């Protein structure tokens, strides 16, 4: 009979490196709104809540560098430094905040996303 327990995880001894070789950035985020804002691990940070003031240009094509399935909560009036990591794979986004529709590395998609962001009020102070 086996000593294994159903569903048991047996992690390897070696550490697992995530996001190796991907571009990273750090931004300071201020919640200028009147209520908390929460951003999940895989949401395109460029497109998150327009009440969050930060360098959106630096955040284009990036997500929070936190474990999958987790989130960061930004309290009203507070500033927080966060680390971002570039998306991998095909780098094609659709939906999210409705600003990016296509290949993150396509200059026309990027220009259209920034124009939509300006028109929708995402590019306020700090953005």
From TrEMBL:
Reaction(s) catalysed by this chain's protein: urea + 2 H2O + H(+) = hydrogencarbonate + 2 NH4(+)
Hydrolase found in the keyword field: yes
Annotated keywords: Cytoplasm, Hydrolase
Predominant subcellular localization, coarse grouping: cytoplasm
The EC number(s) this enzyme carries: 3.5.1.5
CDD domains assigned to the protein according to its UniProt record, in alphabetical order: Urease_beta
Enzyme class: hydrolase
Pathway note: Nitrogen metabolism; urea degradation; CO(2) and NH(3) from urea (urease route): step 1/1
MF annotations from Gene Ontology: urease activity
Annotated Gene Ontology cellular component terms: urease complex
Pfam families membership: Urease_beta (PF00699)
Any one biological process term the GO annotation gives: urea catabolic process
Quaternary context: Heterotrimer of UreA (gamma), UreB (beta) and UreC (alpha) subunits. Three heterotrimers associate to form the active enzyme.
Family, as annotated: Belongs to the urease beta subunit family.
NCBIfam families (UniProt xref): PRK13203.1, urease_beta
Protein's recorded name: Urease subunit beta
Source species of the chain: Halorubrum saccharovorum DSM 1137
UniProt gene name: ureB
